[in-house]
C-alpha cells in the first residue's frame, strides 16, 4: 500500500502538550538504590504508599496533578515544588521553587512566598487514604529549577503548612 496519506495525516495531528508522569511507591531513604519517592516518617507516609504525578506544560502555564494511595486517612498533606531532589534527610530538597526568586532566603516575604509564585497543593485523603489534587500556575519552571515535590506533615490551625517534611518525590518540573 501507498503509505503517504497516513503519514500526512499523522503530521496534521496537533502536538500533544509536553507532559511528564512519575509513578512510584514511597520507600525508605537508605535503600541500596535511591528511591524515586522517599518517606521520612513512615507513620505519616507509610512505606509502600503509592504516588503518581502528572505535569503538563502549555502556553506558558504548568499544571501539576498528584494522586496518592495508602496515606493516613482523613489527613491534609500540604505539597510544594522544591528546588532540589530528595535526599537522605528532609532538608536535602532545598527551599521552595519560586517563579520570581526572593532575594532574601529563606523566603518569608508574602510578596514572594505565596501560591502564585510557588507551586503548592494540598492532598486531603479520604477514609481509604486516597487523595488527588491539582494546581496550575501561570508560568513554566526554569529547566532543572525544581527537582521534587515535598509532602509536609500537616497544617496548623490557620491552614498553613507545617515545616516538617514527611515525604519527597523526585520529579523534573
Ligand atoms: Cu515545602
Automatic annotation (TrEMBL):
<protein>
    <recommendedName>
        <fullName>Superoxide dismutase</fullName>
    </recommendedName>
</protein>
<feature type="region of interest" description="Disordered">
    <location>
        <begin position="87"/>
        <end position="112"/>
    </location>
</feature>
<dbReference type="GO" id="GO:0046872">
    <property type="term" value="F:metal ion binding"/>
</dbReference>
<dbReference type="InterPro" id="IPR036423">
    <property type="entry name" value="SOD-like_Cu/Zn_dom_sf"/>
</dbReference>
<keyword id="KW-0732">Signal</keyword>
<comment type="similarity">
    <text>Belongs to the Cu-Zn superoxide dismutase family.</text>
</comment>
<dbReference type="GO" id="GO:0006801">
    <property type="term" value="P:superoxide metabolic process"/>
</dbReference>
<feature type="signal peptide">
    <location>
        <begin position="1"/>
        <end position="19"/>
    </location>
</feature>
Amino acid at each position: 500500500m501507498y503509505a503517504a496519506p497516513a503519514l500526512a495525516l499523522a503530521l496534521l495531528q496537533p502536538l500533544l502538550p509536553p507532559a511528564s508522569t512519575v509513578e512510584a511507591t514511597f520507600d525508605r531513604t537508605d535503600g541500596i538504590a535511591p528511591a524515586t519517592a522517599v518517606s521520612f516518617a513512615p507513620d505519616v507516609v507509610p512505606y509502600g504508599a503509592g504516588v503518581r504525578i502528572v505535569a503538563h506544560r502549555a502556553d506558558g502555564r504548568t499544571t501539576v496533578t498528584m494522586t496518592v494511595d495508602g496515606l493516613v486517612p482523613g489527613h491534609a498533606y500540604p505539597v510544594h515544588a522544591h528546588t532540589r531532589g530528595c535526599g537522605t534527610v528532609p532538608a536535602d530538597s532545598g527551599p521552595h521553587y519560586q517563579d520570581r526568586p526572593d532575594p532574601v532566603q529563606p523566603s518569608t516575604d508574602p510578596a514572594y512566598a505565596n501560591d502564585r509564585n510557588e507551586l503548592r497543593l494540598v492532598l486531603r485523603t479520604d477514609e481509604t487514604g486516597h487523595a488527588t489534587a491539582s494546581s496550575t500556575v501561570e508560568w513554566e519552571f526554569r529547566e532543572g529549577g525544581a527537582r521534587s515535590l515535598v509532602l509536609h506533615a500537616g497544617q496548623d490551625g490557620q491552614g498553613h503548612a507545617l515545616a516538617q517534611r514527611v515525604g519527597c518525590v523526585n520529579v523534573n518540573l
